[in-house]
Amino acid sequence: MLEGAVYFFRFGKGVIYLFELKFMITRTLLFWLLLLSCLLAPLDRLFAAEVNVYSFRQPFLIQPLFDDFTRKTGIKVNMVFAEKGLVERLRQEGRNSPADLLLTTDVSWLGEAEAAGVLQPVRTPTLEANVPSAWRHPQGLWYGLSMRARVIFAAKGRVRPGEITTYAQLADPRFKGRICSRSSLHDYNVSLLAAQIAHLGEDRARAWAAGLLANLAHKPQGNDRSQVRAIKEGECDLALVNTYYMGKMLDDPEQKSWAEAVYLIFPDQNGNGAHVNISGAGITQAAPHKAEAIRLLEFLTGLEAQRLYAELNYEYPIRPGVAWSPVVTSWGRFKPDTMGLESLIRNRALAIRIYDQVGYQ
């Protein structure tokens, strides 16, 4: 037999009274108490604060923000990354999905998730204060996190300033054999054509896609950085590339020379403005950790995270009043295309069909 004691404190009339309750513990009882404590210990981990993210965005672009969120809140962020298939995965998982937040690289994926019914509306005063109405869903199904422009990267010394100033000119025969491109089916190019459909109409947008295809130096291939490398190596003179890749390449010793071989052209500054798109996120329909997911979404749209977006990812903050990074500022101010994001979502399927019709793959 082992003797144990529990001490109780009571406050009364300025005096602290101490009570001692003694009891006897048998070895069998002690064994069961120790076993119970071992069984309950994992529950601390089971119920630890966490949030699960399905992300189309590459981990290196977003992990620093998640790490900062965890340091500040103690909430662990678990991320599953995939370049495609996450919306279908959410649809198949249904109510059993472990995902709390869907993070996308392009508004078209947010539109697809909306159509699939895998997001739930969430509106908080913080989110609505952080994100202007132009960059969020009216019912709160998704919110923009950062913005970038899809612009023309041009070869220094081979493309004169002012030689090309519009997207339309990319289809001009004088640039035949001088343009490099990634696949037309990538989200970035689909959204750009969706914008052209909104501005030009279906027939003129189809003619533009066909003209652009006719001007390619070779078959579409690679990613955005590959197009800049091709310019550096003299394979072509022009390419459509997202702005933030310039900053990323300047940071990479192996790619810095690629970035230094080109300069940025913001098209259509006397017209509709440069095509812009957003990365964004929405709370999933299942969201087992909804409260934590909302906190993460509010954090990502807050001042600190928006500053980190600007400095680490070379993107344009969604939230007004957040300064651009010095590198991004060096590219110059520009007029963005203010066409509603809903147009990009609405025209996505038609854009893919047009690319297929003209043979641009």
Helix percent reads 40-55%
Number of helices: 15
CATH first level of the largest domain: which class? Alpha Beta
Count of strand segments: 11
* Helical/strand content category: alpha/beta
Shape-level CATH architecture of the largest domain = 3-Layer(aba) Sandwich
Question: Which helices and strands occur, and which strands form pairs?
Answer:
Elements: E1 2-12, E2 15-25, H1 27-46, E3 50-55, H2 59-73, E4 76-81, H3 86-93, E5 101-104, H4 107-116, H5 125-130, E6 143-155, E7 179-180, H6 187-200, H7 202-214, H8 224-232, E8 238-242, H9 244-251, H10 256-260, E9 262-265, E10 276-283, H11 290-300, H12 303-312, E11 316-317, H13 326-330, H14 341-346, H15 348-358
Parallel strand pairs: 3-4, 3-5, 7-8
Antiparallel strand pairs: 1-2, 5-10, 6-8, 6-9, 6-10, 6-11
Task: Describe the protein.
The chain has 361 residues and is of the alpha/beta class. It folds into three domains: 2-46, no CATH class; 51-147 and 278-330, Periplasmic binding protein-like II (D-Maltodextrin-Binding Protein, domain 2, 3-Layer(aba) Sandwich), CATH 3.40.190; 148-275 and 336-358, D-Maltodextrin-Binding Protein, domain 2, CATH 3.40.190.10. It is built from 15 helices and eleven strands. The chain has helices at residues 27-46, 59-73, 86-93, 107-116, 125-130, 187-200, 202-214, 224-232, 244-251, 256-260, 290-300, 303-312, 326-330, 341-346, 348-358, and strands at 2-12, 15-25, 50-55, 76-81, 101-104, 143-155, 179-180, 238-242, 262-265, 276-283, 316-317. The strands form two sheets. Strands 3, 4, 5, 6, 7, 8, 9, 10 and 11 form a nine-stranded mixed sheet that branches. A two-stranded antiparallel ribbon has the order 1-2. α2 (59-73) links the parallel β3 and β4. The chain is globular and about 60 Å long.
